Amino acid sequence: MKDRAQEQALEAVRHSRPQDYDGHTEFDRMTPGQRLAWLDEATLLVFSHKKTAVRSPTTGKISIPNPKS
């Protein structure tokens, strides 16, 4: 059985869109192992900021507010 964090990570990948891999990471040039490592790091970032993240109602993009503002 998968743990909750693993299941949440898989769910995030399932809901990703092609725009999430728009080239700024050169995702298309990475090896499969590099892609998995990149996704692992991205997932850790998302989960570490999950409680403070805010989704824009107009664009649907997620941002993390600056704690100093």
Characteristics of this structure?
single chain, 69 residues, mainly alpha, globular
Brief rundown of the structure:
With 69 residues, this protein is mostly helical. The chain has two helices and two strands, in the order H-H-E-E. Strand 1 (54-55) and strand 2 form a beta hairpin.
Explained architecture:
- The chain has helices at residues 4-14, 32-48; strands spanning 54-55, 62-63.
- By secondary structure, the protein is mainly alpha-helical.
- The protein has one domain.
- It has a two-stranded antiparallel ribbon.
- Strand 1 (54-55) and strand 2 (62-63) form a beta hairpin.
- Helix 1 (4-14) packs across helix 2 (32-48).
- It is globular and about 35 Å long.
- The protein starts with a helix and ends in a 6-residue tail after the last strand.
The low-confidence parts are: none
Q: How can the largest sheet be summarized?
A: 2 strands, antiparallel
Mean pLDDT across the residues is 77
Shape: globular
Topology, pairings included?
Blueprint: H1 4-14, H2 32-48, E1 54-55, E2 62-63
Antiparallel strand pairs: 1-2
Helix pairs in contact: 1-2
